[in-house]
Design the sequence.
């Protein structure tokens, strides 16, 4: 691999915010309007520092350059940054509830090189080692292509309200992670 994975730290936060904005503005452009992307960057997309504190958010880096990020969570919040609405930090019961897959973003210059897949495999393995047998997430349309290729099943798309009168299409997805395929 031309990159390594490591846990994100709070010191990465400014780099992550920059990466997430660049990733969204380029890689989401075929699926969403600029207004949708800019509104999503104010809450639906971004860093959730709780994941960094929990040690469940990862970066892919080459040298000192961060090329991608993504994580999982043992908490109830399904998506969104620190600025997102409807956050719920209560802990899930791994015996009965699915872990959440959270906030995957790859540098557009390094898209389709396996970074998203590697981050997802790491998250699933970590969640499995914490006792979870299922994972779920709320995917963007670009994200649904990655997760679909990794065995996630889509439910009916939802139209999430970003701002009054402005919605965005997301896809709820889920997968059994109880065994390694
Ligand atoms: C979704 C995203 C994280 C994927 O990251 P990535 O590193 O480019 O993905 P990978 O290279 O690991 O792709 C793994 C597989 O997913 C599928 N896939 C990923 N991107 C795809 C695309 N644009 N079109 C079709 N299939 C795609 C392919 O099957 C691919 O395997 P292949 O390249 O061997 O055909 C990246 O496109 C991104 O950052 N998008 C913008 C932000 C976003 O929407 N994030 C998702 C939040 S839920």
Sequence:
């Amino acid at each position: 691999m031309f990159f390594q994975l490591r846990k994100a730290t709070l010191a990465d936060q400014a780099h992550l915010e920059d990466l997430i904005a660049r990733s969204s503005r380029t890689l989401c452009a075929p699926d969403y309007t600029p207004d949708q992307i800019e509104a999503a960057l104010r809450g639906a997309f971004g860093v959730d520092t709780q994941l960094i504190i929990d040690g469940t958010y990862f970066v892919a880096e080459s040298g000192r350059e961060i090329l991608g990020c993504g994580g999982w969570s043992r908490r109830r919040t399904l998506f969104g940054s620190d600025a997102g609405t409807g956050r719920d930090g209560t802990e899930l019961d791994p015996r009965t509830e699915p872990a959440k897959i959270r906030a995957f973003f790859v540098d557009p210059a390094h898209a389709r090189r396996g970074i998203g897949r590697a981050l997802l495999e790491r998250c699933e393995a970590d969640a499995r080692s914490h006792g979870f047998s299922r994972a779920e997430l709320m995917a963007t349309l670009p994200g649904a292509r990655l997760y679909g290729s990794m065995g996630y099943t889509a439910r009916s798309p939802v139209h999430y309200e970003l701002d009054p009168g402005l919605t965005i299409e997301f896809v709820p997805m889920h997968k059994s992670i109880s065994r390694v395929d």
